[in-house]
Amino acid sequence: MLDFLIKGARVIDGNLTDSYIGDIGIEKDRIITKDLDNSTSKEIIDGNNKIICPGFIDVHSHDDFRVVNDKRILHNLCQGITTMIVGNCGFGVSPIISAKEQMSSLYQVSKLANEWKNFGEYFDMLDNYPTSINVGALIGHHTIRRDALSIIDKNYPSEEELNKMVNLVEEGMESGCLGFSTGLVYEPGRNSKTEEIIELTKAIKKYNGIYVSHMRNEAEGLFHSIRETANIGLSADVKVEISHLKCVGKSNWGNSVKALSMIDEYSKKGLDIHADQYPYTARSTMLKALLINGTFNNDPNSPMGKSDSNEVLLCSVPGDKSLEGKTLEDIQHVYDLPTEETVKKLISEVSDKILVAAFGMEENDVRNIMQHPKVMIGTDGIDVGSKPHPRAWGTYPRLLDEYVNNQKILSFEKAINKMTKLPAQKFNIKQRGEIKHNYFADLVIFDPENIKDNSTFTNPKKTPDGIEYIFVNGKKSMMNNNETKVFSGRTIKNT
């Protein structure tokens, strides 16, 4: 007997093939598509006028520590995410002491319910105390650099230090990590040279790992950064994923066409190269990182581009929560200082861990990147503070509502492929990302006419409309925005 039978739904299986009306069964943790005509089920779900598709795979999560203390991961689960990959932008969870130091720049690292010595123990902990969704992990360059180097911001590690970093990469891959990530605009990874990254990336090749990079420059130096990233992949002979591909700063608007053509050219040369994207014109990052990278000074070559003071919104201010939701321009009026001096005062006198949302991208570039066949979707969400970037709660329903239903630049089939099978293939996630017989039953059922993200910059912590059922490994995890609090997530490993 089946546990669930979804009848008469519009099935979009993740494969870019046309949808069809059909029945889908769930038995234990598996999808059943065969011999359903005479099947009996404990529960029958009416799929009329609904879409059923694979659960969404967030390739760009920063919930590395969140999964330890908050098993719900509601901001991800509510938008249909059934699998997330943590460890992006060089922020990794192991070794733990260095991970705590590194993660503290993203969010306050409170006392952890459990701690771990290495990636093996991290995965064991998640297996013993599962969350609401599946979790895979990348090895973070910042964290291992912080652990191995005597002076973390020097440009060249000693041979002994480099070997220690290589050993840490190998331990992570042996434990089941999916690859290795860098964040080359952030401390301490921004100090490293290309040669260091190549040597570390070579260590993931025998595990079929993937090199994932928040590139060194997403503004004036975008094309150079794509070349660096691709050459790292070619030199190490591994797959490459460009994190949150974008063109930042007004002077760089329109560069998406050339950036995407470069990806195509490297692909023709045999490099397995893709990118991910969130569907917004604002990014989110640390205020300190924007300052260090010259966003607010007169240097036109800022690696993180330029944003005016009215385009920077404070999301999380640990030292003064009353400032959350205000723009830098608002605070300038209080301080009566130029933008850069206002930022320095905030960092020195309030907190050096302020997170912001910063506008600086152009909608046409967002659309160009989104439509490219080698681009998938990721949230890059950081759900901290009272006004987090709305991508943490609304990325996937926004894509379906705004860009499929409203702008019609993607079909449901293409959009769902970018959120399911494409990332599963890229990150070597087996038996997920498709509706296929005997695959794991990670599934989303939604109303295509009423799917809507409700998360905004002024009120971001809002669950979406239109998602009716979410299944994780065959368990009903959400129904009509109500959590079941059945924690059925599993670890996703490269083995």
Write the layout of secondary structure elements.
Blueprint: E1 2-11, E2 20-27, E3 30-32, E4 41-46, E5 51-54, E6 56-58, H1 66-69, H2 74-77, E7 81-86, H3 96-103, H4 119-128, E8 134-140, H5 141-148, H6 159-175, E9 179-183, H7 194-202, E10 210-214, H8 222-236, E11 239-242, H9 256-268, E12 273-277, E13 282-286, H10 287-292, E14 312-316, H11 328-335, H12 339-350, E15 355-359, H13 363-371, E16 375-377, H14 391-406, H15 412-419, H16 421-426, E17 443-446, E18 467-472, E19 475-479, E20 482-483
Parallel strand pairs: 1-4, 1-5, 6-7, 7-8, 8-9, 9-10, 10-11, 11-12, 12-16
Antiparallel strand pairs: 1-2, 2-3, 5-17, 13-15, 14-15, 17-18, 18-19, 19-20
Helix pairs in contact: 3-5, 5-6, 6-7, 7-8, 8-9
Could you characterize the architecture of this molecule?
This protein has helices at residues 66-69, 74-77, 96-103, 119-128, 141-148, 159-175, 194-202, 222-236, 256-268, 287-292, 328-335, 339-350, 363-371, 391-406, 412-419, 421-426, and strands spanning 2-11, 20-27, 30-32, 41-46, 51-54, 56-58, 81-86, 134-140, 179-183, 210-214, 239-242, 273-277, 282-286, 312-316, 355-359, 375-377, 443-446, 467-472, 475-479, 482-483. The protein is an alpha/beta fold. It folds into three domains: 2-53 and 435-483, Urease, subunit C, domain 1 (Roll); 56-281 and 361-426, Metal-dependent hydrolases (TIM Barrel, Alpha-Beta Barrel), CATH 3.20.20.140; 285-358, no CATH class. The strands form three sheets. Strands 1, 2, 3, 4, 5, 17, 18, 19 and 20 form a nine-stranded mixed sheet that branches. Helix 3 crosses helix 5 (141-148) and helix 7 runs parallel beside helix 8. The model has no long low-confidence stretch (mean pLDDT 96).
